[in-house]
Amino acid sequence: MTGFARGEDSDGALAWGWEAKSVHGKGLDVRCRLPHGTRALETAARALAQKTFKRGNLTLSLTLGRADDGVPRFRVNREFLGQVMEAVRELEGETQGIETPRLDGLLGLRGVIETEETDQPLGGADPARLLASLSAVLAELAAMRDGEGARIGAVLAAQLEAITRLTEAADGVAEMQPDAIRARLARQVAELMEDRPGLPEERLAQEAAMLM
What is the pLDDT of residues 12-48, one digit of tens each? Predict the structure, then answer.
């Protein structure tokens, strides 16, 4: 059965979304598309899918993002900044006449300001909550597939009923066909006798054979 379901959730800092797609398949084939650092969830995600479904080609996709509308966060790499400032103090005696770097200049150095990434393992999210969200999405997908199955079953039942009705009608026509042929042949023979009243029996048999 085919189907699609999606669910979203967050824990205040991290937001995630699961998508589950299903197409026809004789057996059960589960494919997972998970972000970097979340591969540990794959085994558990497959187990949930196998518990819910017995057949079909399933694709499970997980996306991670920030729950704060995607506004990037940053932090100051104080260790690196400290090393830079220490180097500035050491060089002050060797750089007479050169203006001491300003703080905004130091903060502009690459590596001093770092953007916090969410692609760390699980992005700090609770694996149990991620799997609970997936379980809800799989339940929605199962309901969608059941609904499609019920609709297809109704169509097939109607088609089978129509086939049965037409078969019974065809059987009735077939049973009536020999009688209809005999009646038509008798009528044609009677018309032949009227046209040729003195026709010999042998000639009559030949004419009847030709009519048949």
Answer: 778 888 999 998 888 899 999 888 777 788 999 999 9
Rg of the chain over CA atoms, in angstroms? 42
Task: Output the CA torsion 20→23→26→27 (10° steps).
Answer: -10
Question: Tens digits of per-residue pLDDT, 90-110?
Answer: 777 666 656 677 777 777 777
Measuring CA to CA, how many Å separate 75 from each of 13, 79, 133, 140, 203?
16, 12, 31, 40, 116
Report field, pTM of the whole predicted structure over 0.70: no
Instruction: Give the other-Cβ count within 10 Å of 141's Cβ.
Output: 27
